């Protein structure tokens, strides 16, 4: 029997949470020998992931930031459409939010993970720029009732349905929570660098995030001032480029905020062992993988209030009601006094309504009716 052909457009899976998810996607695909896969991937993954030799992988050099939006437009809507039609693929999986405009939506699956597209401009005005506005309008242009989406959780699924009036039967929540144990298993023997000195007399907090506007690094000075004013034994460690850290430190005269530099996943996953808490300052996320990483490594969580945080998380984490010194001080004082609070069990995050990629491929390629 002739194998069905699937085209994977993974050109954008090169940084941050999307790179973490890429490990899960390619691991799942590697197990599926009943399909012929062609994968479009960024060159940066060439030495990070072992691709199945039976799959055809085409690597592209992803350009610098100021050019990558136009480049992605070309890949998503011109290159993918041409390749899909020329080689007669049965299905295309787009991993970068957008369906290809020149490919029938019935022949596409699109992984959605930019939560900003589901909010009104007024709600996200702090983060709006020309690129984000163009992306939102392009997403509306490429999306309709016939679109099929993969999401990271039910929160994103509901936001998409409500914002764009989508057919709920065409949205699948994928079991991405598996990506964290998968990456840890691959890197668990990695040795921690000797130069990581952690003073155990302090409450040590790691903020594992890239230097993006929605991560609210500009609010860290509030934490720094409270720590100094109240002489709290707390240190906060970042994982950003040194040039960004030095700029931040100089601007706000930070005294209790340190930087580990940008770290690859194998290092971060082993550095977690050294810290007591994981911090999140982002109010807009589709999933916020560091929260799930913290749970996996049995670390306590400090997070600003946000609607993407599940209710069962909120009851067991140190929640900051807003970027107000009073609220932050209250949370940090609780951190100092913390002992053996109840923790969220990672395996409890799974539920029956999650789909594997293989199950979704079978549903789509066999034209089965399936109600989510």
Please render the helix and strand layout as text.
Blueprint: E1 4-9, H1 16-30, E2 35-42, E3 56-60, H2 65-86, E4 91-94, E5 108-111, H3 130-142, E6 149-151, H4 154-164, E7 171-173, H5 179-187, E8 203-207, H6 220-229, E9 234-238, H7 242-252, E10 257-259, H8 265-271, E11 277-280, H9 289-296, E12 300-304, H10 311-314, E13 318-320, H11 325-337, H12 357-365
Helix pairs in contact: 1-5, 5-8, 6-11
Question: Could you walk me through the main structural features you see in this protein, from its secondary elements to its overall organization?
Answer:
Helix 5 crosses helix 8 and helix 6 packs across helix 11. The protein is 35% helix and 16% strand. The model has no long low-confidence stretch (mean pLDDT 88). The strands form two sheets. Strands 3-2-1-4-5-6-7 form a seven-stranded parallel sheet, sandwiched between helices. Strands 10-9-8-11-12-13 form a six-stranded parallel sheet, sandwiched between helices. It is of the alpha/beta class. The longest helix is centred in the first third of the chain and has 22 residues.
- End-to-end distance: 30 Å
Q: Helical segment tally?
A: 12
Q: What's the count of strands? A: 13
Radius of gyration, in angstroms, nearest whole number: 21 Å
Strand order of the largest sheet: 3-2-1-4-5-6-7
Global shape: globular
**Main β-sheet, in a few words?**
7 strands, parallel
In terms of DSSP E residues, the strand content is 15-25%
- Assign a percent range to the helix content: 25-40%
Q: What structural class do you assign from the helix and strand content? A: alpha/beta
| Average pLDDT score | 88
């Amino acid at each position: 029997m002739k194998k069905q052909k699937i085209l994977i457009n993974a050109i954008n899976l090169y940084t941050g949470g999307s790179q973490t998810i890429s490990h899960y996607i390619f691991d799942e695909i590697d197990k599926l020998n009943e399909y012929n896969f062609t994968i479009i991937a960024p060159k940066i993954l060439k030495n990070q992931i072992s691709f199945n030799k039976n799959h055809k992988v085409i690597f592209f050099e992803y350009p610098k930031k100021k050019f990558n939006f136009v480049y992605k437009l070309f890949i998503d809507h011109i290159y993918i459409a041409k390749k899909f039609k020329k080689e007669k693929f049965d299905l295309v999986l787009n991993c970068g939010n957008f369906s290809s405009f020149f490919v029938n939506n019935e022949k596409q699956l699109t992984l959605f993970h930019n939560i900003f597209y589901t909010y009104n401009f007024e709600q996200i005005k702090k983060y709006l720029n020309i690129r984000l506005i163009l992306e939102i309008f392009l997403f509306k242009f490429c999306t309709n009732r016939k679109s099929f989406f993969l999401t990271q959780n039910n929160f994103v699924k509901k936001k998409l349905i409500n914002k764009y009036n989508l057919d709920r039967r065409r949205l699948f929540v994928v079991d991405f929570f598996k990506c964290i144990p998968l990456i840890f298993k691959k890197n668990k023997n990695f040795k921690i660098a000797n130069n990581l000195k952690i003073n155990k007399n302090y409450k040590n907090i790691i903020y594992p995030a890239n230097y993006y506007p929605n991560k609210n690094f500009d609010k860290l000075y509030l934490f720094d001032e409270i720590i100094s004013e109240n002489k709290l034994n707390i240190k906060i460690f970042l994982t950003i480029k040194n040039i960004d850290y030095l700029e931040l430190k100089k601007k706000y005269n930070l005294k209790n905020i340190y930087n580990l530099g940008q770290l690859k996943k194998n290092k971060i996953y082993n550095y977690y062992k050294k810290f007591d808490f994981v911090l999140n300052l982002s109010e807009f996320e589709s999933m916020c993988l560091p929260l799930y990483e913290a749970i996996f490594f049995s670390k306590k969580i400090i997070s600003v209030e946000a609607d993407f945080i599940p209710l069962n998380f909120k009851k067991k984490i140190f929640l900051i009601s807003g970027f107000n010194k009073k609220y932050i001080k209250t949370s940090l004082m609780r951190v100092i006094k913390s002992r053996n609070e109840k923790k969220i069990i990672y395996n409890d995050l799974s539920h029956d309504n999650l789909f594997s990629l293989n199950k979704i491929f079978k549903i789509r390629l066999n034209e089965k009716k399936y109600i989510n």
